[in-house]
Every structure is written in structure tokens, then in C-alpha cells.
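Hey, resending since the last one bounced:
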Amino acid sequence: MRCLLIGNYGVGNLGDEALREYFLREFPEVEWTVLSANPGKSNEVPRLPFGVRSLFATWWRTIGAYRRVDAVVFGGGSLFTDSESSFACLLWWWHAFVARLFRKPLFMAFQGVGPLRAFRSIWLTKWVFGRAAFISVRDEASLKRLKGWNLGTEPILAFDPIFTLFASRKRQVNEQRVLVIIPRDNSGEEFLVAVSGKLANSWDSVRVLLMRPGEEERHVARQIQSMAKAPCQVAEITTQDQLLGEISKANEVVTQRYHGALAAMALDVPVTIVPQSAGDKLQELHFLAGSDKSAEVLLRRVERGIEGLTSALRVVE
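The C-alpha cells again:
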């Protein structure tokens, strides 16, 4: 069968690109066309027009993809939230709306839903999920939000599927005490206070990992370096293997990046997760990291999501 895979792909985010590769590998029986912000491969098409600049993209190829596919899959990530952008929900609603115009079934897989603050964001998200043929979510907060809306499709509680890839990596034995710190470009006082507390302990070395390296993130890294007493190096992370290699050698991790936290949890490395806002995806991982839920429980949740999506796609074939 043929499916259009929609997510925040092509923007240079390591986690989103890992999700993209996960779907392509986990469901080889599906002929995927991937929606990308920067299409470069033969199976990729651009996003639909959403602003003046995007009008000049070859979006008519995307319309053709909608016509050809049997179903549309929103594959992972926190797409429907207005915590970082007030336009995010509108962007993804627009793509779901066009899918419904072409009478293509919607599959919402491994989704993180919320936080949603604006009435418009809530309405748009309800519209999309209310028309979905299949729904799985990656955290309990998302499940609670959706259940409160009395949708026609019962959502499945799954987990982020990237966890399965991370959990397959073995943690390295390291005689040195290594602290890994993963900031964001907008990491503020709360994060730096948490980092300062950890830096007060004795470390042989400190590693600052930049997962979306830019001048703002490098500025935060320099602040951390000025606080560290132990040798402190900065590494720019561009691949999943790099991230796992760094985390596997750590004795402890402080992070404000979701997939940095996920990698630490999968490798059973003690981790301090600093949320950005109440109810965000980092806070949900913070709660999980402090609970008694084992890796086996989370892996079973991923399997439940895979089985549910596989069964739902078979109905369309």
C-alpha cells in the first residue's frame, strides 16, 4: 500500500529525522512518500503552501502525492501543540484537511498532543483527531487530553518508538566520572540552576552536547563552560549514533532536550530533565524518569502502538 508520511521532517532536528527513518524501516511493506520542509530525495515532497515563500515550492507534487496514496500517516512528534508556535496546529491541520478533501483516512501514530493554550489550537486539534481512523499517543498527558474530548476513535497509549532504537544500544563502562549536559538555544535560569547544582559535584570531565547547534545554543554552552571546574568540552551532535555514544559513556545527564532525555532513560543513565513549561513533553518524561516504570514496560507500549498501526493499515489495503 502507499502512504504519505507527515511530520516535522527536514528541519534538521535529530529526533524527527530518527522518527522518519523509523517508519521507513519498521514498515517496509508500505510505499512511503515523505512530506519534508526541505525535500531532497526522490520519495520526498514539500509541505503544502503556508505563507508567501512556500508558494514557490513545487507543492503541486504534494497534491499529486495526496491523490496517489491510500492513507495519510502523521508519524510521531509533538505536532499539535502551541507551546513553541501559535501556527503549528494550523499548519498540521491544513495538511489533515487536504487529506480529508481527497477522502484519505488519517492515522495519528505515536503523537504527543499539547500543551494547547489557545482556543484555536484546541479546535484545530479536535478537528483532526476527531476524524482519525487510528490514534496512538506517546504519553499519559496526551491520552488524558484526547479522552476528555470523547472522540469516535479510542486512542492507544504507546510510547516514543525511538526508545526501541536507543534501548538496543549497550552502555559503556567508564572509569572516569563524566557529566553530560544538553541545553537548548533558549535554556534559561531554571536550567542553569539545575546545571550549577550538578557541577558542584566532583567530575573528571563535563561534556556539553549541542543537538541543534547555532549561535544561541553555543552561547548557552559558553555559559556552562564558565561555570565548570572540571575540563568542559562542547560537541555538536548531528547523528543518532553520536548522541548514543556520548550518553553511553556518561555517569549522569542534565538535559532540556527530549531525545537526550529519552536516550538517557533507555540506557539507564541517571538523568535530570528540566521541562520548559508545565505539561510539556519534557515534563512527561520527567515524571516517567522518576517513576518505577521499567524499560520493559515502555518497550511494550511501543509494541502496542506498532501492532495497532499495523492492524489499522491492513484494513485500508
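The domain at 170-266 is CATH 3.40.50.720 (Rossmann fold).

Sorry for the duplicate.
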